[in-house]
Amino acid sequence: MDPVKVNQLVEFLASGSLPAGPENQALRDSIRQRAKNYVLRVNGNLHYICRRRKERVHLAKVVLTSKEANDIFIEFHSSAIGGHCGWEKTHRAIIDRYYWPIKECPECQKRRSSIKEKQQYLAIGVSEPFELVGMDLINAELCQKLGIKRSFCSPYHPQTNGLVEKMNGTLQGCLNKMVKRNPQTWDEYLQVTLFALRTKLQLTTRHTPYKLLYGREARYPSQVPDLYVVTDERVTELLQREEVCDGLKDQEQTHTQARANVLRSQQKTTLKRAKKGHEDHFKVGDLVLMKNIREEQRKGGKLEDDMLGPFSIINIQGKSVDLRATNGSEEETN
Q1: What are phi and psi of 40, to 5 degrees?
Q2: In angstroms, rounded to a whole number, what is the distance separating the alpha carbons of residues 222 and 239?
Q3: Residue 151's CB: how many other CB atoms inside 10 A?
Q4: Which whole-number Å values give the CA distances from 296 to 85, 108, 113, 292, in the listed order?
Q5: 132-148 pLDDT per residue, tens
Q6: Residue percentage of the chain with pLDDT more than 90
Q7: Is the dihedral angle over the CA atoms 15, 16, 22, 26 positive or is it negative?
Q8: Among 94, 106, 158, 189, which one is least packed by beta carbons within 10 Å?
Q9: Average pLDDT in the 12-26 region?
């Protein structure tokens, strides 16, 4: 606890003295209200009265200042007898003796942190078909021939390739339902499954991917016979041409609607995620820890720290940051 607040409570409980002056009226009310939960012992130590309703007991805990709290934390957590136990075990060991909210120590931050930060939601803007293409495997030669600029994601971190990974999960779920009895035949159902996904309403754009690309809805096999039950091939050809022209005229309007729908959906998702927690906001100069990928990949790495660092942020580009270690070496990570 703040030493100033401790002294205010001690003085009030010992002699009833409070800060004078009309400007301190709110402070006096605050001290009186807080003092209801404290007692002053004969030795001059301030104790906090903890009321445990379920156990029907009252505990008097020694109130610690910031300096005293640090010493107690070292004894109960960071020392050899503390054992660097987790938040809950350390808290349980202290809670019956002292009044002081604890957090984490640097060593434990490099292992499994008890604080889970909600990741920032980054919306991907789109304006037309094939403006952005997500692929799992693509070689450098093909990119060079087609003039494609590649953006790499981090290994073992599929969240940075969310466009592909989300689609892969949906595709896998559909194929799983089709080939339950014979999984080896999944490739025989791949094209029809993709057709099914491309011709279904996409909740973000409010249109089917097929319509966004071709300007009209797809025809299912059951629709084809009715379209061609005609006697005059010339009439059929003209009708088809007219339908295609109408579709092309409406396509730009459809794309405009889709862009507006995507924007609304992304804004709605951003607001929804904002209500569930807080996001990470880093800036150049911040000290951060970096996930130890080697610990997961290397045999015998279980006793290594889960996090490396601290590092200083020297540059930020979207979700990618450049880090500098204390020895001067630089790293790039996502």
Answers
A1: -110, 120
A2: 19
A3: 11
A4: 22, 18, 16, 7
A5: 766 656 678 888 888 87
A6: 0
A7: positive
A8: 106
A9: 86
102 Cβ neighbours under 8 A, 6+ residues apart: 69, 73, 77, 87, 90, 91, 94
What are 149-155's contacts with CB under 8 Å, separation 24+?
A: 153/334, 154/333, 154/334, 155/293
Tens digits of per-residue pLDDT, 27-80? 888 888 888 888 888 777 888 887 665 555 566 778 887 778 888 878 777 776
pLDDT at 114: 42
pTM (two decimals)? 0.35
Please report, as a single letter, which amino acid is at residue 180.
Answer: K
Specify which residues 332 forms β-bridges with. 322
Cis peptide before 310 (omega within 30 of 0): yes
What is the separation of C-alpha 135 from the centre of its chain, rounded to a whole number of angstroms?
Answer: 23
HSE-CB for 18 with a 13 A CA cutoff: 16
CA distance 288 to 5: 32
Model confidence pLDDT, tens digit, residues 241-262: 555 556 556 777 777 777 788 7
